[in-house]
Amino acid sequence: MTKEKTSLEGVYLITPQVFGDHRGWFCETYTAQKFHDIGIDTVFVQDNQSYSKGKGTIRGLHFQNAPMAQTKLLRCTRGKILDVAVDIRKGSPQFGKWVAVELSAENKKMIYIPKGFAHGFLTLSEDVEVQYKVDNYYSAEHDRSIRFNDPAIGVDWEIENPILSDKDLNAPLLGESDVNFIFGENC
Q: What is 43-176's CATH number?
């Protein structure tokens, strides 16, 4: 298992070791000891899975405010996505900056996104499944969104008319959000 830095400090691309033969392949997607060995000691408490039917679907940008903030470990197990993380920690030198990586069933890569970052993805194929681990339980009271096309962030989604939920379509801009992350304090 390898860990690669991205352009955002704290966000990593994880690549599992894949063993293949004439029957197919096998890989360990999460092993606490192997994650510890690469410097990640997050204790995950919940696994989630999403399915998106159509190509061009955007889910995000989502996060949970502190104290119910979540670190996420995501992978795409069917299809292909453009996965995006945005630093939303007030006072961070990276505040409002974003990184995008391609995750797919084929490349088997994962993205590790710590607390203090918003997350979203664009489906690059039909019939997409995403599985992810989180280190805190879902809390409707703390659940938040930021508009996917906030010009202050400027994510290049590479799409004109995405498929969106009402929640994502009507999400506030980052500057209007009640995001409560403070760099170096609560995340």
A: 2.60.120.10
